[in-house]
């Protein structure tokens, strides 16, 4: 049998109904989760590795072999399978091989990992504090009901719907043309995409929170314990805080386990006795590894969903370049920022003007690199697969009747 088609990506893939598509992608994840959370007294590490091998090998080609009729869902399932692979690879294989630990994670720890992107899980205090004694766990007062989540969900829905009506008028050719010929309009597209992505991820976050609150907490929750999935990245004052704090934390626990901690631990062993300098080197390299994994994931999205000739000729390596430059900017920012803080007076570094300059630095860098990230996804046509479009027909009808604003829209109006 010729397996070459598995490496060609794009439109040859088998189209499945959405329920079957979701079931197919969820099955290996559920099986791997069951293997990982089974105590090693029941299944030895070696047995787990043997049982998990076909599922780890088989999970990645799923995105290259199957698709549904929703492009956004295809991207999400590509993201899901990629991270299922790296998380269970670390638990079942890399941890035991590189660190000598058992291939096991408790159900509770796994639950906390899955939900830590949104919810704070208190840990026992390591020492006495003003409010807690050593060993005590903070108690959160439940001050909200499940229905408080619903208006927040609809507010973000409205943002996606309104701005999505604007984006749907731009073809991939329009996006490229605006980037090359109309910098001011491209800047507004950049800002709009950031806002829409923030709201779209927050819709996902609020949906997950609503499920958790109803299923696990009986309909009430502590607002202090929950965060938004995306925390206003458009107001970031450093590239480091943009990626580490304000951008979505959906994959944070996975990438902390691998590649961050794995890379750091391997380097620490290789460099011998830990010092302040070697610790800094290990952390820097581990952070760089996170950007590599992120870049590879985004390359995988495009590779899986675009025809191979289009991906190879126009987009191969683009996401890798984007994230490598981001990693370099983070390193540059840390070095220069530390140096400037030592030399400049505190009255300046903590002033509103300094914060404005830091914000401007982030915006300029993000806008400068934005085309590298965007153009591949417009070729995929993600702007036409916005599931939040109740008001879209009415907005477009109004725009079509208002010629004065047509220059601010794409050719598909």
TrEMBL record:
It is a multi-pass membrane protein. Its main location: membrane. Pfam families: MBOAT_2 (PF13813). InterPro entries: Wax_synthase, Wax_synthase_dom. The chain crosses the membrane at residues 20-38, 50-67, 79-98, 146-167, 187-215, 279-302, 314-332, 352-377. One of its GO terms (biological process) is lipid metabolic process. Keywords: Membrane, Transferase, Transmembrane, Transmembrane helix. Pathway: Secondary metabolite biosynthesis. GO terms for cellular component: membrane. Coiled coil: none annotated. GO terms for molecular function: O-acyltransferase activity. Residues 226-306 form the Wax synthase domain. It is found in: Membrane. Belongs to the wax synthase family. This is Wax synthase domain-containing protein. It comes from Phycomyces blakesleeanus (strain ATCC 8743b / DSM 1359 / FGSC 10004 / NBRC 33097 / NRRL 1555).
């Amino acid at each position: 049998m010729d397996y070459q088609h598995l490496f060609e990506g794009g439109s040859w893939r088998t189209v499945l109904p959405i329920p079957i598509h979701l079931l197919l992608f969820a099955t290996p994840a559920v099986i791997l989760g069951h293997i990982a959370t089974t105590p090693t007294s029941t299944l030895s590490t070696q047995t787990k590795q043997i049982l998990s091998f076909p599922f780890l090998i088989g999970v990645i080609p799923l995105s290259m072999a199957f698709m549904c009729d929703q492009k956004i869902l295809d991207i999400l399932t590509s993201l899901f399978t990629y991270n299922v692979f790296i998380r269970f690879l670390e638990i079942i294989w890399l941890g035991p091989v590189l660190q000598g630990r058992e291939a096991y994670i408790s159900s509770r720890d796994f639950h906390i990992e899955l939900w830590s992107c949104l919810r704070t899980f208190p840990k026992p205090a390591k020492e006495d504090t003003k409010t807690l004694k050593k060993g005590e766990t903070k108690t959160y007062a439940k001050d909200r009901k499940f229905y408080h989540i619903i208006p927040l969900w609809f507010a973000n829905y409205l943002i996606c719907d309104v701005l999505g009506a604007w984006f749907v008028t731009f073809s991939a050719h329009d996006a490229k043309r605006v980037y090359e010929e109309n910098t001011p309009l491209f800047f507004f597209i950049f800002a709009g995409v950031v806002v829409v992505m923030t709201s779209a991820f927050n819709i996902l976050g609020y949906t997950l929170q609503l499920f958790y609150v109803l299923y696990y907490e009986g309909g009430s929750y502590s607002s202090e314990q929950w965060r938004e999935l995306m925390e206003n990245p458009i107001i970031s004052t450093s590239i480091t805080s943009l990626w580490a704090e304000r951008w979505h934390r959906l994959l944070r626990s996975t990438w902390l386990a691998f590649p961050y901690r794995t890379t750091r631990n391997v380097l620490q062993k290789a460099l011998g006795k830990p010092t302040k300098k070697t610790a800094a080197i290990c952390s820097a390299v581990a952070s760089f590894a996170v950007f590599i994994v992120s870049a590879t994931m985004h390359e995988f999205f495009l590779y899986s969903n675009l025809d191979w000739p289009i991906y190879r000729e126009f987009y191969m390596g683009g996401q890798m370049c984007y994230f490598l430059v981001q990693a370099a900017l983070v390193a540059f920012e840390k070095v220069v920022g530390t140096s400037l803080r030592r030399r400049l007076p505190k009255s300046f570094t903590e002033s509103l003007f300094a914060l404005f300059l830091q914000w401007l630095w982030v915006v300029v860098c993000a806008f400068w690199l934005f085309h590298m990230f965007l153009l591949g996804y417009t070729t995929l046509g993600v702007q036409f697969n916005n599931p939040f479009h109740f008001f879209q027909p009415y907005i477009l009808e109004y725009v079509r009747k208002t010629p004065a604003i047509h220059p601010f829209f794409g050719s598909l109006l």
